[in-house]
Amino acid sequence: MSPMTTAAAAQAEMPAVLSVEGLTTSFLVDGQWRSVVRNISFDVKPGETVAIVGESGSGKSVTSLSIMRLLARDTSRVEGRIILNGKDILSLSESEMQQVRGNDAAMIFQEPMTSLNPIFTIGRQISEVLTRHKGMSKTEARAETVRLLEKVRIPNAANRFDEYPHQFSGGMRQRVMIAMALASRPKLLIADEPTTALDVTTQGQILDLIKVLQEEEGMSVLFITHDMGVVAEIADRTIVMLRGETVEQGPTADVFHRGKHPYTRALLAAVPKLGSMHGHAWPLRFPIVDIGTGKASEPTEVADTVDTRKTPVLSVKNLVTQFPIRSGLFGRQTGAVHAVEDISFELFQGETLSIVGESGCGKSTTGRSITRLVEPKSGEIHLDGYDVLALDQPSLRAMRRSVQMIFQDPFSSLNPRMTVGAAIAEPYLKHRLGNREEATEKVADLLRKVGLNPDMMGRYPHEFSGGQRQRIAIARALSLNPKVIVADESVSALDVSIKAQVCNLLMDLQEEFDLAFLFISHDMAVVERISHRVAVMYLGEIVEIGPRAAIFDNPQHDYTKKLMAAVPVPDPARRGLRRNAAVDELKSPVRPIGYEPPPRAYREVAAGHFVQV
């Protein structure tokens, strides 16, 4: 018997750190108890990683909150058995449960900024766990906190003890949360979508970190996610949930390669895989999967409608956008954030140009600068015949008929007090493109085009799912018949199957209306699928730009290679993978007054493929 087989057999014989039997969780709605999680059972063994996977509404997060007893007691009811480290969780008093949280099990969430107190330093927040649960003195707690921060690979940990959450990047804040979770050396770490909001490189670092810490601490992990690539890389066993029930569970390799339930096969088929576009000249629609049968439609190529011989619909030259930093009693400018630094590109009718990079690289500011939602400092923007930076307010309003934006969170861009019909019709009426009767006909037509029923126009945004709200935002953007659509992380927050549907919708609309898309994203697998060309941004600069196939098949810049290497691949064979990526934050784009960026040169690697030298 091999050492690995022996270790697995020994692990199987050990008592479970967590044992869940017949878990049913219900919420009080309109005076009636409604179950949202039904009869869930599973174990997590010592040192094991178990992933619960499913889309929004599947009940996976409610399962984790039930285990930690973090649901409101008056409006929730948890039944069944939860044995954690030998303790019957459901029989404990609240004071006893407070001792369990942190000592026996700890939890990290998707958005660390909502879990960290913004008015206390990160050092104080971690130290509080140690003084409360371990009875340490302040001096001992400080020393242990610095050790924990070093353990989660936060550079210069001792000096960052007294910094506040807002002074850390998203990835570093997540590291702080992991350090806090590890402070009491829990037997079980529950990670609820801990990498969903992170850039691909930061996500890779966090996954590596959890693997390393698990080996060093002998900790068990319950990992909750909807990202099948993450599941493949981190989980020993996988539980698939659908509408509050377990539909399949088993060793991760078995679930991926021999999944029996149609929903499992549907989830896997919908995952975009980096490299799947090799040999395809044009963007490729995502396969759409029937959840009932698990069968996927055949992906089809988008027709080539891009004519680069014509004048580009959008031309950007030497664009610079900076944000002043003011300090002192009189608010004098002491520096500037160099968000966009001398970038140039063109976009043609019917083309998708994707801008990729980590948070803070300037990609969203580029989109907002083009639409003048933020004011550029200098450069040239020509859009559909308009000299954008020379426009006064009335002309700017007219120009915005030609360019529309779709944002990441449609709920925040739709008025909650306005019906979706009124929201879609508003731009049409404001620009006086027709009367109310014509606007109603236009809304009905647009709702049909985005795959919704015209009968829905009387409903409000909260009555729709996230994917439906994004379709409504797309319909609203189309109401002015724009030439260019800037899609800013427009599918990043969506579940995998909904993401596939919305991406297909965008490609269908592009084909029908000859739209040009500026697609801003950090999801490299999606970008590879839908793009004609790709621009890679780093610290406000384009470091590489070219045809999609050239960028993905032959990346030249080190940063582009780093982005590609960090993408999680839905292949359980990568279970032991360590990227060993350098742990560093994206360098600051803050510069002193008078700073002049060095001149940049590009070399042409192949036709239309340029890389910064």
Topology:
Blueprint: H1 3-13, E1 18-29, E2 32-44, E3 49-53, H2 60-67, E4 76-84, E5 87-88, H3 94-103, E6 105-108, H4 122-133, H5 138-151, H6 157-160, H7 170-182, E7 188-192, H8 200-217, E8 220-225, H9 228-234, E9 237-242, E10 245-251, H10 252-258, H11 262-270, E11 314-327, E12 332-347, E13 352-356, H12 363-370, E14 378-383, E15 386-387, H13 393-399, E16 403-406, H14 410-413, H15 420-430, H16 436-449, H17 466-478, E17 484-488, H18 496-513, E18 516-521, H19 524-530, E19 533-538, E20 541-547, H20 548-553, H21 558-565, E21 590-592, E22 602-606, E23 609-612
Parallel strand pairs: 3-8, 3-9, 6-7, 7-8, 13-18, 13-19, 16-17, 17-18
Antiparallel strand pairs: 1-2, 1-4, 4-5, 9-10, 11-12, 11-14, 12-21, 14-15, 19-20, 20-23, 22-23
Helix pairs in contact: 4-5, 5-7, 15-16, 15-17, 16-17, 17-18
